[in-house]
């Protein structure tokens, strides 16, 4: 598609940003949908966030994604927040409205839930276990609670971080946090219907790592979800599959959070299968 004076602009801001997969995925989807818009990766210096955000707004950008390290820092710059962004206290997508209002969204929640929806797995009244308590865990926890699971037990190595996360969401459901070696965590694993792995353990190049979760102790009907998408099957998911569990990796979450942002900016649902194909090809190219 030719870039002209009428071509609109989308972007992702972060630092570092050169390795972002979003420009490749989003530009392929924009082109396939015939939308006259380009998506660029813009490095923003630490300390320059507000001038960058207001500059993008004043230069007529339609919207942009936000990634590390700005997802929380950007919140005070927003004129409004979606419920998901407010609950998670992180923004990954900004819509610049025609009047210049900046609306912060978080599409990681919808992205995460798409992994279950794609397999027709219902979450209502299910018992969930969450491994890890970092940034992605907040989106996962809120997604689980929003979907009315009956309880969430968080396994952590850092007790105070786990307790803080559980406290933040205590008003929205039965949430408790324990150390990995706490008997209460082992007991929760035994009755879990869903296990979600949100630590970087097992991510390329550290593919030999996995969290200290005894897969054999978990009932075989439980579904395992690992947010990692490189490799496509982590050691954790491989162990679960070998034990007969259904497994979900982070690919759908990554693509679906981008697809939801695309929809917020354009009002059009992009071709998710195309986005997945482009992602896989790019991951192969990068080795
Ligand atoms: P983060 O904020 O750094 O959180 C990482 C969490 O993992 C923390 O709770 C940390 O514990 C824990 N952890 C790290 N190393 C550990 C270890 N050796 N043993 C036990 N726990 C450990 O990272 P994040 O942004 O949440 O991302 C986490 C993972 O999710 C990454 O692999 C990322 O690629 C993936 N992710 C995927 C998607 C997707 O779209 N598929 C989206 C977001 C994230 P402490 O709190 O004790 O440090």
Write the layout of secondary structure elements.
Blueprint: E1 8-14, H1 22-32, E2 37-43, H2 49-58, E3 63-66, E4 80-81, H3 83-88, E5 93-96, E6 102-105, H4 108-117, E7 127-131, H5 135-146, E8 151-156, H6 159-168, E9 175-179, H7 183-191, E10 194-197, E11 223-226, H8 235-242, E12 246-248, H9 251-266, H10 272-286
This protein binds NADP nicotinamide-adenine-dinucleotide phosphate.
Number of E-state strands: 12
Low-confidence stretches: none
Unique ligands: NADP nicotinamide-adenine-dinucleotide phosphate
Give helix % range.
Answer: 25-40%
| Overall mean confidence score, pLDDT | 96
Specify Rg, calculated over alpha carbons.
19 Å
Strand content: 15-25%
Features:
37% helix; single chain; binds NADP nicotinamide-adenine-dinucleotide phosphate; alpha/beta; 287 residues; six-stranded mixed sheet; six-stranded parallel sheet; 10 helices; 19% strand
Describe, in plain words, how this protein is organized in 3D.
There is one protein chain. With 287 residues, this protein is of the alpha/beta class. Helices cover 37% and strands 19% of the residues. The strands form two sheets. A six-stranded mixed beta sheet has the order 2-1-3-5-6-4. It is globular, with a radius of gyration of 19 Å. The relative contact order is 0.13. The mean pLDDT is 96. The structure holds NADP nicotinamide-adenine-dinucleotide phosphate.
